[in-house]
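Researcher: Here's a chain I'd like modeled. Treat it as a single chain, no partners, no ligands.
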Amino acid sequence: MKISFIVTSLDKEKELQSCILSIEEAHRYRNDVEIEILAIVQNTQKKKAIKTGYPELSTFYYIPQTGLSAARNFAIKKSKGSFLVFLDDDAAVKEDFIDVLIKNTSKADAFCGRILDPVNKQAFSRYFLNIEKKYLKRFDFRYFMGSSHVLKRSILEEIGSYDENFGAGSKFYGAEESDIFFRLLKQSKRVLYIPDLVFYHPVPHKMSASKSFDYAYAVGAMLTKQITTDARHFFTYVFLIAEIIFKSLVRTIQSLFFWSSIRIKNEQFQYRSVFSGTIGGVIGYLRGRTEGKI
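Model: Modeled as a single isolated chain. Structure tokens:
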């Protein structure tokens, strides 16, 4: 068995190095498991001076184009592992990561774990307060995040690669992992949340309105895509869209009258941007589909 760690990066050399070092530490913990690290550095063909502890484990690819999904698809074709671990450059893994993953590989087709802040170990979101294993349903899609999931190669070959319309640097800023998640469930694949499978990623306490809008736009588009491709669960996706729009609208109204009680949460989530972004994403996807641009 071989595990491929795929790390995409864009102008974050220090973070990329830290990510690779954490993978190497996990390899030392279980050095009987063969691994490879593929680092895809985007928007450049100039090599970076990134020092690693075990140079033979890492291969660096420098590509001129940007786009998270395109970079991951590029790496998938280059990789050799039977399990693929996807990480952002500012993420890391716990030292027992490989050991935990190996003990669970026979239990599902795809996996995700808890995301914690590397400094204070704060959960990235309320979902990662859950310390019990669970097989995920459609309403659990927020467990399956971009920098914290693992896919079997054989399953990825069945469902197809990342949709390059989604992800940072693409038409829709994010939600590429959620699209993969729903496609897994559409094909009746099992997705297992493993709380002991720990990823580290800084927890953002503030988010700009523009970034929040872009991500919500992507989520709205991604859920609309599922409506058009998975008619059997039409009402589930409609409910998810309606839920996001309704909750963000209520929070937006609340912020107008009770600003002090919601100020901190609004700085983190930017509810008005979530509301307008989600609706914009629904319209944007339908318009793009009608015009043949998607």
